[in-house]
Structures are given as structure tokens and as C-alpha cells.
């Protein structure tokens, strides 16, 4: 127990020494914030220990230098008068206030009985003014961007207004402007299905293919519609055009499969010359497995029917009335069902063959059903095309 206590004391001393060295190193490099963080973290645990006496002067020095550095930078930026500097000024005042709030709960701090000096300032007026100044810059940036009347500028305006609302949620008409910027910055895409084949596509299938809730395509700046809304000026159109639908005849293929295997037919026991059973090392009678060759014929029938759908996904710029891009789309679905009968010794059959024997003939799917069966793959391929090929 005594040894454990000694180790704990040694570890504590080493950690304290490490804190002093690390904070001094940060201070000497001009990383005042880092030095403050190291010392504050240590003093929060114990501000009256012997090692704390070495840390308090470091904190005092780092705080004074950080405050002087930040206020000097603010003074320079204010003299410069660049609107782009308003955010930096706000950041400096915010950090000054945060640093004070880290140290304030630890005060008073004493070095050898003498109270250390930490000049605490009230930055509330400066913070309010800096927020107002930065908010005005963001608001003006947004208004200027929106006046350019392009999608990307509306999106930039939205970014500025979003930043503005973090500072002041009720600033002027920012709430209305951010909704307007989002609406005007969004790409609206009308998707239409066209059938250039001689096969009728059921309306239910068309609705299913154009159900974009299942595609999860919409993002913050893109909205897909399958119904043309008169109140929206569409930016892009996507045409999903079926150009060829091939449906094969219903096919039935029969074949005879001779099956022959060696199977276990029973066991006998070894007998010695005296007519006694031979025993193994455990005292059990030695077995001799007896195998025989069994045969049979599997009469297998395969029903099959296939559909192939070929099409094209075309992207159009509505304003320019121009084809932007096109992507081929192809899907295939094969219906296949196997059943069988058997003649012979059933011991010859394996598990898979037994399973096939339990199957019965099935009605062939209709052409309409084949289209629906193929639609799942069509949707997957269409979704992949739309996700890979964004508009901006």
C-alpha cells in the first residue's frame, strides 16, 4: 500500500511538471490560448498546491499578452475599415469574452500570498456592436447576391442569410429572404416517362416508376416532380423513354437425366476364424459398411420466359431548350421454374433433386406481370443514373 502511495505521488509530481513545461512552451511560441487552456485545466483541479504557484504566473502572463494581442488586432481592423473584417472583429471579441469566463471562476489567484493581476473587461457593448456590424455585412451580401438573379447566387445568398440567423434570428426581413433564396436557388426537375414501343405500359406501372419518394433523390437544392405543376418554372427535364421491349415466347424444355450413385445399403460385422465378432479398441464390434449402386431417371421440365427493356434517359435544359446528356438504360428479367418427376430407386436422389420433385407446374406470368417484374431493376438503374449525374 505504501509503495502504491509513493507511485501516486511521483505520478502527480510528473504531471504537474509536465503542465508547467507545456504551458511555458506554448507561451514562448506565442500560443497564448493554448497556454491558458493548459493552466486553467490544471488549476481547476487544485489552485492552492505548490505546483500551482508555478502555473499562476504563466497564466497571468499569457492572459495579459493574449488580451493585448487581440485588442491590438481589433484596433487595426477597425482602422482598416474593410467590411470583410467584421466577422474577424466579432470573433476576437467573442474569444476575449470566452477566455475571461474561463479564468473568472478561479479568481482570486495568489502567488506567495500576493493576489495575481487579471484585468477583467466588460465587452458586452463591443460584442453587440460587432454582431450588428457583421449582421449588416451578411445582409448586404445576401441582397447583392440575390440581385444577380442566378441559381448559384441565390444559394450563396442563402448561405449568408443562414449565417446571419445564427447571429440574429430576427434581423429585418432575413427570415422571408432566406425562404425566397431557397425557393429561387432550387433546381426543379420534371421527369416524364415516354413509351416509343408497341407494348402498352400500364398506368399503375408508370406511377410506380415515377414515384420519387422511393428513389430518395431530392436534396436541399434539387426537387424532382413527376406531375407538371403550372406554378413552377422547371429548370430541367428528364425523359425516361422506353425504345424497345422484347418479350420472349413461353418456353418449355424437357430433358431426361440418368442418375446413378453408390449408396449405403446396410452394415455387417467382422467375424474371426472361430466365428467370433472382431472388436475394436473400445470393445465394440467392428462394422463393415455395404454399398450398392442405385439408378433412376429424373424427368426435368423447365418453364422460362424473358423480357428485355431498352431505353434512354435524356437530360434537357428547359431555358436553353438543349439536350445536356443522355444515358442508355437496359433491364432484363427472366422467369424460370423447374419441376420434375422420377422413376427408379429414390435413394439415388440428393437434397436438391428431392426439392425439385416437390415442385409443380406453374402458370406463365402475363406480359404485364413481366413488365412489373422488370420494373424493380429499371428503377434501380434509373436511380443510379440520376444520382450519378447531378445537374450542377
Automatic annotation (TrEMBL):
This is Lipoprotein. Residues 1-22 form the signal peptide. Keywords: Signal. PROSITE patterns: PROKAR_LIPOPROTEIN (PS51257).
Amino acid at each position: 500500500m505504501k509503495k502504491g502511495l509513493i507511485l501516486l505521488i511521483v505520478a502527480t509530481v510528473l504531471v504537474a511538471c509536465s503542465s508547467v513545461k507545456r504551458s511555458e512552451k506554448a507561451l514562448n511560441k506565442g500560443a497564448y490560448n493554448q497556454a491558458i487552456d493548459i493552466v486553467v485545466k490544471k488549476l481547476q483541479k487544485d489552485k492552492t498546491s505548490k505546483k500551482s504557484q508555478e502555473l499562476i504566473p504563466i497564466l497571468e502572463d499569457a492572459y495579459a499578452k493574449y488580451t493585448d494581442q487581440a485588442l491590438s488586432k481589433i484596433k487595426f481592423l477597425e482602422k482598416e475599415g474593410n467590411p470583410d473584417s467584421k466577422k474577424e472583429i466579432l470573433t476576437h471579441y467573442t474569444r476575449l469574452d470566452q477566455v475571461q469566463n474561463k479564468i473568472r471562476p478561479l479568481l482570486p489567484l495568489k502567488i506567495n500570498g500576493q493576489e495575481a493581476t487579471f484585468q477583467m473587461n466588460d465587452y458586452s457593448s463591443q460584442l453587440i456592436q460587432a454582431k450588428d456590424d457583421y449582421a449588416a455585412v451578411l445582409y448586404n451580401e445576401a441582397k447583392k447576391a440575390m440581385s444577380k438573379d442566378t441559381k448559384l447566387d441565390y444559394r450563396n445568398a442563402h448561405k449568408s442569410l443562414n449565417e446571419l440567423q445564427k447571429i440574429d434570428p430576427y434581423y429585418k426581413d432575413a427570415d422571408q429572404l432566406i425562404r425566397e433564396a431557397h425557393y429561387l436557388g432550387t433546381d426543379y426537375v420534371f421527369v416524364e416517362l415516354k413509351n416509343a414501343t408497341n407494348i402498352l405500359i400500364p398506368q399503375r406501372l408508370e406511377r410506380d416508376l415515377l414515384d420519387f419518394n422511393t428513389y430518395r433523390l431530392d436534396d436541399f437544392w434539387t426537387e424532382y416532380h413527376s406531375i407538371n405543376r403550372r406554378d413552377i418554372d422547371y429548370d430541367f427535364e428528364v425523359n425516361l423513354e422506353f425504345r424497345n421491349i422484347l418479350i420472349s415466347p413461353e418456353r418449355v424444355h424437357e430433358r431426361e437425366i440418368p442418375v446413378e450413385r453408390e449408396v449405403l445399403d446396410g452394415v455387417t460385422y467382422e467375424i474371426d476364424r472361430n466365428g467370433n465378432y472382431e472388436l475394436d479398441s473400445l470393445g465394440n464390434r467392428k462394422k463393415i459398411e455395404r454399398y450398392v449402386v442405385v439408378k433412376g431417371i429424373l424427368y426435368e421440365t423447365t418453364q422460362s420466359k424473358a423480357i428485355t427493356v431498352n431505353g434512354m434517359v435524356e437530360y434537357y435544359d428547359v431555358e436553353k431548350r438543349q439536350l445536356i446528356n443522355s444515358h442508355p438504360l437496359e433491364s432484363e428479367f427472366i422467369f424460370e421454374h423447374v419441376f420434375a418427376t422420377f422413376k427408379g430407386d429414390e435413394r439415388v436422389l440428393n437434397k436438391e433433386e428431392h426439392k425439385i420433385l416437390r415442385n409443380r407446374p406453374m402458370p406463365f406470368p402475363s406480359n404485364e406481370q413481366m413488365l412489373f417484374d422488370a420494373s424493380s431493376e429499371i428503377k434501380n438503374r434509373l436511380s443510379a443514373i440520376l444520382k450519378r449525374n447531378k445537374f450542377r
